[in-house]
Design brief:
The longest helix has 19 residues. The protein is about 30% helix and about 30% strand. The termini are far apart. It has 10 helices and 12 strands.
Length: about 250
């Protein structure tokens, strides 16, 4: 059971950062996963008054605030148009509309969950993470950083001429994924991302002509209650081929 002693809706990132330095204080977003845990929070820090619930666009990038919901991403016309509905496809099977109306981008990325569809597609898009104190960090570096008391402010997606595709396998439409896959291509360079292995997403950069078997050999696959490592490896080959075909 989640036990919260105090609640503060902060008025600035400075205030949020200072409060977050205390051991038992926590940043809260949609609380879709946090509330399922068994922990005691001294002070819950609410960022909802800081204007971080917007998707901003300029000529070179999208800036997605940490409090933007997955549903906002799913229904954003500009994101869907530029990335050929790939972001929509990546999030539309996450539980249900009610869940996606509350789950935030910040929480989805900060948790670095092994099952994260969001992390998989963001790696393929070459996204960056804006942290309040650390600054802007490529998402591939961020996923290996130790968890600390910094604050995720936004996710930045550059506008490039890449082609990208996403696919996943689930036991049912809104279940956790057995495997996630995204492939992006720029000219003759290809990035393949595989997640839910069942650990967090990883990527492999290669030439577009690299054989699928060779690509999948670069990833480690594990076994859990949802699937065996052998099954995941075979599924990975199918998903990689599907995504490659989609971006040709």
């Amino acid at each position: 059971m989640l036990n919260i002693q105090n609640y503060i809706k902060v008025e600035s990132l400075d205030e949020a950062y200072e409060l977050n330095q205390k051991k038992n204080n926590k940043i809260i977003g949609g609380m879709m996963w946090m509330r399922m845990g068994d922990s005691r929070i001294n002070t819950a820090i609410d960022l909802s008054g800081l204007g971080l619930d917007k998707i901003e666009e300029n000529d070179s990038e999208f800036k997605i605030g940490a409090m933007v919901t997955l549903r906002q991403i799913e229904t954003n016309n500009s994101l869907n148009e530029i990335f050929n509905n790939t972001l929509k496809k990546a999030v539309e099977s996450i539980v249900g509309v009610q869940f996606r109306n509350m789950a935030t981008v910040g929480g989805s990325i900060w948790g670095r969950f092994g099952f994260s569809d969001v992390l998989t597609i963001m790696l393929a898009l070459g996204a960056k993470v804006e942290l309040y104190k650390t600054g802007v960090v490529p998402i591939e570096d961020f996923i290996d950083m130790e968890h600390n008391n910094d604050i995720l402010v936004s996710v930045i997606i550059p506008k490039t001429n890449l082609k990208v595709a996403y696919d996943t396998v689930r036991l049912s439409k809104t279940d956790f994924p057995l495997l996630t896959c995204a492939v992006s291509v720029v000219e003759d360079k290809m990035r393949v991302v595989i997640g839910a292995r069942p650990t967090k997403a990883r990527f492999f950069d290669c030439n577009i002509n690299t054989e699928t078997d060779e690509i999948c050999s670069k990833f480690n696959f594990g076994t859990n209650m949802r699937a065996t490592a052998e099954y995941r490896e075979q599924v990975a080959k199918v998903l990689v081929n599907r995504c490659r075909k989609a971006v040709q």
